Amino acid sequence: MENITFLHPGFFWLFLLLPLAIGWYVWKRKQQTATLKISTLNGFKARPSVLSKLKPLLFVLRLLALSAIIVAMARPRTVDVNSKTKTTRGIDIVMAMDVSGSMLAKDLRPNRLEALKDVASEFVDNRPNDRIGLVVYAGESYTKTPVTSDKALVKEAIKSVKYDDNVLKDGTGIGVGLATAINRLKESKAKSRIIILLTDGVNNSGFIDPRMAADIAKEYGIKVYTIGIGTNGNAESPYAKTPAGKFLYRMMPVEIDEGLMKEIAQKTDGKYFRATSNTRLKAIYEEINKLETTEIEEMKYYNYDEKYRPWVWAAFGLLLVEIVARKTLYRSFI
User: Fold this and answer.
1) What is the reported pTM?
2) What angle is formed at CA 174 by the lines to CA 170 and CA 180, rounded to 5 degrees?
3) Which residues are registered as beta bridge partners of 167?
């Protein structure tokens, strides 16, 4: 009965009639055979035959036949489901990550950059039908991963992101980060194109004005979601390095140009978020995930294999055996 379903399981309630049938049989059993009254049985030797002992089996056969009919009426069957999924409206997404030295601040655990990497990887897992790319920026920017459907590649790129002032000049070039992300999407043929731009500071580097980059994004129809990451007030932030290359930390004020970030989001029909904790950062990416939904067309094909026929044949066979036995072996002449 593995993997078998029933089209009309309500017929199983008929099994409640079987105890009633058994009770009726027991009550009427003695009335079903002819009786002969005599004054004494001394002249007869009691030799009950095997056939007389097996006669109740006729009723058992009938009960089994009725049970098989009830199961057949419930329509047992197995189903094989084949599904075909088609993405009808894909989204191309570029995540632009700030990897400046201030992203090592410890107001998020273990620091802002590591917290962002964890949440970004989870976001990638939740977008199986979209293409995603990765841009990193500090004082300069570059494309870590072009827009691709290879989620393993994107997650590996996110995992490898780290602060390295030998690769990128330190600073916060919001304009160049946004411009590089736009460059990754401007030739995209996707129905929807979005950028998730994250920073923890103010624009103090780069040769591209962030507002000009926002105008370009708007011209290409690219929506920008902006995120400011960092607690309110002061945070334990790196300010120098030891000769051994170890960072020194002290409490420093958190400065995010929220006005600029809100302006970029508003200009491109996006939305601005502020992530002050690990929990809030995760909630922001979950909200973006819900805001940017991908339309999926799924077609399912059901192949049913009916299993009621063997039960019908079983019921027919049991009834046939009962009728033949009743008309031959148990035929009454009285």
Assistant:
1) 0.66
2) 100
3) none
